[in-house]
Structure formats: structure tokens, C-alpha cells
Amino acid sequence: MGGGPAGLTAAIYAARAKLHTVVVDEGLIGGQVATTFHVANYPGTNGVVRGVDLMENMKKQALDFGAHIDDLKEISDINLEGKEKLITTKNTDYYAKAVLIATGAAPRRLPAEGEKEFRGRGVHYCATCDGAMYFDANVIVVGGGESAAQEAVFLTRYAKHVTIVNRHDYFKASKTALDEVLNNPNISVIWDSEVRKINGDNFVKSVTVENTKTGKIEEIEADGVFVYIGTLPKTDLFAGKVAMNEQGYILTNEDMATNIPGVFAAGDVREKKIRQIATAVGDGAIAGIMAERYINGK
Questions:
Q1: 257-266 residue pLDDT tens
Q2: Which pTM value belongs to this model?
Q3: Catalytic amino acids?
Q4: N or C: which terminus of the chain carries fewer CB neighbours within 10 A?
């Protein structure tokens, strides 16, 4: 379940091992990586590769080894107990001896008044998807991590000016990403601050920002707001069915096995310290191999 780097890598290994392998995804194949403009740190590439191209290569590999890919299939129910697992979608029942949960994570919503009302009308969570709408505009980026830094730089391709609102007085991004931000004349940073309210009529016009140290309230004109404040695991479907931590991430051992025999988890959906494409691929490789060993061991 899930067609991001973890799911596709597992499919490559499982299909190559001659297991009948199906990848089921509620959206299009590629996960979050497919909406990333460029990936600069994936091993074996020429330095920079478009996220969509990287995922297309993984998809082709999985298909070439014989995997089946069923995208745009929303899963409505699951039964993970017993020797045969059942995954149910609107028009298909999938029976499997082993299941891999690789549903990934989704962007954490901005906890500010007006976020829901202006979502898609000035509030966005993907610069690659929506950045081109903001040519010669003033844009706010909310966040202080790697994604916020990278996407702020990307948005300068279109926007006149990008303002980063960072709740801390430091960035959690890498030195490379930080240098790109601080050396870009079209990017400014508001430190120690959080967005409290999104203002506008039919579209975003400004944001209300509060300095968390001084309490000062400030209104900043903006045509768009891009949010990068972390992710939440897409595990609602599995609540009460597999062991999770308090944040909803699935617990696994080093073999990617959950507490249920024959059920594995890989990628951003599981509890782990580092969430990168490379670690998702590593998880998927282990999960694919261990699923094959589990089935043949039976």
C-alpha cells in the first residue's frame, strides 16, 4: 500500500523474487517525491534530478520486473489478521499473504485562523505544484527546516520576494540549504514568529504574525503562503490494527516487520529518526526481501 520510493522499491525486490506483487495507491504513483522540483542528494544521480523523473524510473523498474500498479485506488477497508490479508477498494478486493504499509506522510496543516478557508486560494503545501501561480508576487514561506529553506529558494524563480516566517531563531536545515537562503537577496527571514491568521477576501491578501518572544503583532502583505512545518503519517486506516507510537507512526523492528505476522511497514509512515528518499528506499528494499522470506518460510 503506497507508491512512493519505499513502496516501489519493495515492489522491485518482491517482483524480481517472482512474487505476484501489486502496488495500490490512492493517488498517482510517486508520493511526496513526485512533487519535489529537484533532488540533489540522491546517490548515483548526476547531482540533481527532478523528483518526478526519479519516481518514473522506479515505477518503470517495478513494472519491468512484473509488478502490477493500481493507482487512484482509495482503500476503504483492511483485514490484516490471519494467514491471508484483505485490502478492499471500491471495485477490487486484494488478497495477499504479506502486506507492506508504505502510505507515507502528508504535510502538517498550518494551525492558523483562516487556513482552511484559504487552502487552495493562497495557502499551499507544494511549491512545485503551485509556485508558478505567483510570478512577480510576494510570498510567505512558513517553516524553518530543510523543506522550507529549499522551497523558499525554489519560489524565487517566480516570486518577486519570499519572506520566511520561522518560529525559531535558527534553521534546522543543512548548511548548504541555509547558505542558499541567506545569500539570496530576494529572501528575508522573520525570526521567532508564528502565523496566527490568514487574511483576505476571495484570495489571500496578508498574514498576521506574532513574535513569540516579544508578543508583537504584525500584519504582512502577501499574495500566497506556502507551509512547511512537518508531516503527519497517513495511518488513520490502520489505527488499532497495528502498533503505533503516540504520533501515529507505525512501530517496526529492523526487518520492517510490525507486530502482526506478514505485515510490514516502510518509509515515512514508520517510526524512525531520518526521513529521506534514500532511507525510504532502504526500508523498501528490506521490506521486500523480508516479505519474500516470510512467504517462502511458510
A1: 999 999 999 9
A2: 0.81
A3: 126, 129-130
A4: C
